[in-house]
Amino acid sequence: SEGAQVSVLVLVASVLVSALAVAAIALFLYKRSRAARRTFTMSDIVGPKVWAPGEYVSLVCIGYHCPAGTEARWAKCQNKEVTPIAGGDPAGSDGEEQPLVPLNALYKVQTQTLPLAKGSATLATTLLFRVRRSEDLGTRYQCCFLSKDGGTLGTKEFGDYTLRPSAHTQGPAAPAVDPAAARPAEE
Per the UniProt record, which residue ranges are transmembrane (predicted)? Predict the structure, then answer.
């Protein structure tokens, strides 16, 4: 009877130790998953797959769980050269509607911030520009999120598009017309 009591105590102690170990592992995994949900992530750059000269294109990239002070920056990559794109959002304080892309700029960059709990935010940034054949053929566009101290949180590139000819360059060229032949014959 005494041996049976010892084995029951050993069994109960083993079950309690196992339950505590399982609880500790579950708590560790729960805390790790919560921390992972709060770390910075970013979407791929989203944009149209087919571009035509003269049309406007919007490229969008979103940063999730951005720490306070995070900035979004755009650049164009052409022939291994990376050129930062300036194109801040002009203020329309006078109530006038702003053009899609300001007349004196090649690009317009807009960034919207959605504050989240614990000082982080979601940043959605849009690069808007008018397609120019010579400038845009083979160009890749890069979105980068930078922390307040200048460190890079994440970078994505977009270059998965095709450039189709514009409507006024498609088809055969119009035949040359002799101005004299175009006038009606005099009687």
Answer: 6-30
Tokens (6 digits) for 15? 């079950």
**Contact indicator for 71, 146 with CB cutoff of 8 Å:** yes
Are the C-beta atoms of residues 53 and 137 closer than 8 Å to each other? Answer: no
Contact 126, 109 (CB under 8 A): yes
Number of domains making up the chain: 2
Q: How many Å apart are CA 86 and CA 183, to the nearest integer?
A: 53
144 beta partners: 73, 155
The pLDDT confidence band at residue 171, using thresholds 50, 70 and 90, is very low
Range of the domain at 121: 41-167
- pTM exceeds 0.70 for this model: no
